[in-house]
Amino acid sequence: MKIFNAVQIRQADEMTVTKQNITYNDLMERAGREVFLWLKMQFPDKETIFHFFCGQGNNGGDGLAAARLLQTDNYKVVLDIIEDAGKPTPAFTANLKKIEEAGIQSNQNTVYEYEKGRLVYIDALFGIGLTRDLNDAIKQAIENINNREAIIVSIDVPSGMFMDRKTDIAVRSDVVLTFQFPKLALYLPGNASFVKEVAVLDIGLDNEFIKNTVTDFYFTDEFEAQSRYKPVTHNAHKGTQGHALIIGGSYGKIGAICLSAKAALKSGCGLATAYLPKCGYTVLQTSFPEAMVLTNGEEHITQISFDFQPKAIGIGMGLGQHQETQKALYDFLKIVSVPLVIDADALNILSYNKEWLKLLPENTILTPHPKELERLMGSWKDDFEKIEMMKSFSKEYKLVLIAKDAYTMIVYNGTVHINSSGNAALATGGSGDVLTGIITGLLAQSYSPVDAAIFGVYLHGLTADIGIRETAKQVFIASDILKYMGKAYMDIEAKCNLK
């Protein structure tokens, strides 16, 4: 799914109005109706009180349309129009007239008795067009919304959130009902406190415009993931499914390579070999008998050498940063030519020796968490600068960069794919080791590096989405990712209508 910026979204609105021969008021009515239908489905109890806070721009107009439809459907509606929130637009004014014709009063100070959970605040102060800093009156209005015991639903974006720069204060939404496209700002780490959940509502914008308009940003939803999935053929065997080599482990960190090697095989590759120090030999052979094992060094790897040609290699999980291991990595990078995934200690070693980045084969996949990413690239002032730095870094070294976070980003060749799957259950030790194994296994099955990264990250997250239906986030561990991989694959295949 494409992610458009504010200018492109306005162009989509204009094209829709022109090509579909409708008015902006009609488009606003569509938006309000979609909000109304979503709210009606989520809150069927007619005792629910919807308290709308509307600005005077088009976002406020969307709110007015939804408020009118709820009132007509016999819900209890309270309407506050915040005059400091923008100048009245024609579409807002038209909807305000409809509100008055329907007999709904604004700013009426209506007081309803309500039980906890039955009060819903609807935030419709500002949309994507906000460019100016907020005045004190608006800041106070936002704080008043945030400090009440109510479910908060924002229309399109949380009011106060900027689309192209850092946000300091905004409505802290439980749900954001955004129109037609995901918005980049909704998925940035710095905005996490303002957004808990996002629902994308289709308001019928022009399909041809959406198809033909170029963007650097994409959202990996289930449809995008399915398009990159390669089902196993009916005549497959272990020789055709590829051989993955997983290199890592050191004394006290053998679990990392065990998780990664098992993830590679469970991703669907035919063979997996683990390369680790001798201290981990018995552990791996016992815990994962399906893997083949090569060893080097007693407690850490001192040399990387093997006499077969794997289809893909993952390296770094639990590797350690010993001087001998660093030299072994350098010697390995000078000669490696197969598809490569680099994680954990191997990333940290690269960050100390940035000139080694030039040794990496084209389209090598790096999988840093935020601190590892900072060590590789340097620090950034905000999320927008971080994204530009990632794009430049990926282009300079011709890499696929997987920036792990609550919403993981895959960056390559100037494009950014934001992953939709996963939840806080993945915030557990070993989760990244499993991800590297999955991606390496996909590479071994002849997925392209970009497809392996995008699909692998989605599959990894989907295991947690399925897992928390059966267990709490707090008890979900890295091994559970492996446990639920089969169900994740079944979910994808079912939606692809595959047997």
UniProtKB/TrEMBL annotation:
It comes from the Bacteria. Residues 9-211 form the YjeF N-terminal domain. Its EC number is 4.2.1.136, 5.1.99.6. Binds 1 potassium ion per subunit. It catalyses: (6R)-NADPHX = (6S)-NADPHX; (6S)-NADPHX + ADP = AMP + phosphate + NADPH + H(+); (6R)-NADHX = (6S)-NADHX; (6S)-NADHX + ADP = AMP + phosphate + NADH + H(+). K(+) binds at residues 59, 123, 159. Keywords: ATP-binding, Isomerase, Lyase, Metal-binding, Multifunctional enzyme, NAD, NADP, Nucleotide-binding, Potassium. AMP binds at residues 404-408, 432. One of its GO terms (biological process) is metabolite repair. Pfam families: Carb_kinase, YjeF_N. Residues 221-492 form the YjeF C-terminal domain. Its cofactor is Mg(2+); K(+). GO terms for molecular function: ADP-dependent NAD(P)H-hydrate dehydratase activity; ATP binding; metal ion binding; NAD(P)HX epimerase activity. (6S)-NADPHX binds at residues 58-62, 127-133, 156, 256, 318, 369, 433. Catalyzes the epimerization of the S- and R-forms of NAD(P)HX, a damaged form of NAD(P)H that is a result of enzymatic or heat-dependent hydration. This is a prerequisite for the S-specific NAD(P)H-hydrate dehydratase to allow the repair of both epimers of NAD(P)HX. Belongs to the NnrD/CARKD family. Homotetramer. HAMAP family: NADHX_dehydratase, NADHX_epimerase. NCBIfam families: yjeF_cterm (TIGR00196), yjeF_nterm (TIGR00197). This is Bifunctional NAD(P)H-hydrate repair enzyme. It comes from Flavobacterium cerinum. The gene is nnrE.
